[in-house]
Amino acid sequence: MPVHRPRFLGALLALALALGGVLALPSPAPAASAVCALSCDTLDPSKARQESFPVPDRTVNGRLLRLHVSEPDSMAWASVDQGKQGDAVWLDRSWDRGASWDGLLGKASIPASWTGTRTLMYNVTDPVGHRRGWVRACADAVGVTCTDWFRPRVCDGTSCDGADPATAARDERPVPATTLYGRTVSLHMDQANGLAWGVVENGGAGDEVWLDRSWDEGASWPEGSSLGRTSVPSGSSSTRTAMFATRDPRGLLYGGAVRACGRESAHQDGSCTAWARPAPTRARGAADALMASYRTDEGWWRSSWWNSAVALTSVVDFARATGTHDYDWAVARTFEQNQGVFPAGGRSSDPVEGHFISRAVDDAAWWGVAWVAAYDLTHERRYLDEAVTITDYVRGFWDTGSCGGGVWWNRERTYKNAVTSGLYLWLTSALHQRLSGDTVWGARAVTAGDWYLGSGLINGSGLVNDGLTSGCANNGQTVWSYNQGLAIGGFTELWRSTGNTRYLDAAKRLADAALSSSALTRDGVLTESCDVGGASCDDNQKQFKGVFVRQLADLASATGSSAYRAYLVRQADSVWAKDRDPLNRLGERWAGGSPNQVDWRTQASALAALTSAG
């Protein structure tokens, strides 16, 4: 249950009893829900990457009880030895510092002719539930005994809980201080290292200050309450906590939020600052906030299939641009958990038939783009092979019998639109560059590019409308930024494949039109038509602008254009200054204003802007 206010004497007493080993045999309860990180609960201990014994062993009637932990796996298991048939061992796991627990996890009994046994492994952190656990080993051998509770120390590289604020690289105050009874309580951050601490000033002896740490943006913090709690010493008017980390990479927990809280010595009520997240860099802060929404158990951002492909591409682009490899595991996880078959409603409203393919041709193509990006990051051939499989599927909907070419939007062949044809142009050009000795995909790319230029999708102003009519004319529908961006990127890739300046000139013409037209740029900021006035963008439209800046950045790299680079920088500056809250959540409207939707889709799109700006 979320703890919404520090529970003082009662909470401390409960914690002291739990940590001190005052035990009762847990009553049988419904099985706890399985926790899945990179592995799910009940993994065999033989697969542990490391084994350590972080708390003292216990004995019960001559039996040896031991807690085992593999910190690289963030998993634990229990064993009992020197025992007799029927002796039992299990693991307890608590999400609230030992006040309550999931008991009897992996309970195992010593079989006949054996003298010991062990449980399976269980996760100590729950990335899906945004929580860190405490674990202990327990045994019943004509009497119940448990080890001390253990929780892994939170460390982000060399930055760990408990560090001295005197060692901080910088001291910043990300949110306003709070006051109570004349005292000032402030939150301080070493942004570069993702560390935070609290300070109380203008106080007296006995005043207290502490940090709360939440892994779900301040919705709950049962494991992370009252961190570093310390009192002002006699003769002083201020004190500070130790520093605490806000990222737990081993536990796959990123973007932890913190706040500083304090209490005046003569009163039980306290006061806290607002929650905040650090941002070692702008892009890193955005990436952490995005990864906090990633479903480690399912390997995607839940509820949007193609949007997850674009979000993964944003994460991969961030990793390539910055040399940050914290999220490389998510690339493999997404691939391995989603390459198979899913019924309608499992990942998309349509069935997914394997290899990320469904009746929505453009949805499959977005995954092709993601796996090309993954190949560029990791150089693992399986990702490039998957991109080839997907692009070959998309090629099956290239149809010269209608409009002379172009790719149908869906399996029913009801619409030829810019997005699917733009994706096909980009994919064929990209595959040609990455497949040694290729001539087939290169020829297809030229055919796709030449068709696009003559198709009518590009209007007289150099803007890309949504698609073609049944009579193969420009339908005059909305100019969306992602259609414009895919055309820019597709022709840039085709120029790289062929060296033909005709294609690079086309990409520049499309880019110049986007930067100068109020259909896409207002006051220098990329603006979707659904960003204007009281309008709202739907879940698809929330990610369009990120696609555009990704492709414009590629053109800027190809041309060395200072104008394109300046435009990209302006987008990132506007996002960070006008479209961000203290938790580094980034919204749909890059110029700020309301209504402004904020979710993982808008986060992924804005991350692309921050990455593209360098």
TrEMBL record:
<keyword id="KW-0378">Hydrolase</keyword>
<feature type="region of interest" description="Disordered">
    <location>
        <begin position="221"/>
        <end position="241"/>
    </location>
</feature>
<dbReference type="InterPro" id="IPR006311">
    <property type="entry name" value="TAT_signal"/>
</dbReference>
<dbReference type="InterPro" id="IPR053169">
    <property type="entry name" value="MUG_Protein"/>
</dbReference>
<feature type="signal peptide">
    <location>
        <begin position="1"/>
        <end position="31"/>
    </location>
</feature>
<dbReference type="Pfam" id="PF03663">
    <property type="entry name" value="Glyco_hydro_76"/>
</dbReference>
<dbReference type="InterPro" id="IPR005198">
    <property type="entry name" value="Glyco_hydro_76"/>
</dbReference>
<keyword id="KW-0732">Signal</keyword>
<dbReference type="InterPro" id="IPR008928">
    <property type="entry name" value="6-hairpin_glycosidase_sf"/>
</dbReference>
<feature type="compositionally biased region" description="Polar residues">
    <location>
        <begin position="227"/>
        <end position="241"/>
    </location>
</feature>
<dbReference type="GO" id="GO:0005975">
    <property type="term" value="P:carbohydrate metabolic process"/>
</dbReference>
<protein>
    <submittedName>
        <fullName>Glycosyl hydrolase</fullName>
    </submittedName>
</protein>
<dbReference type="GO" id="GO:0016787">
    <property type="term" value="F:hydrolase activity"/>
</dbReference>
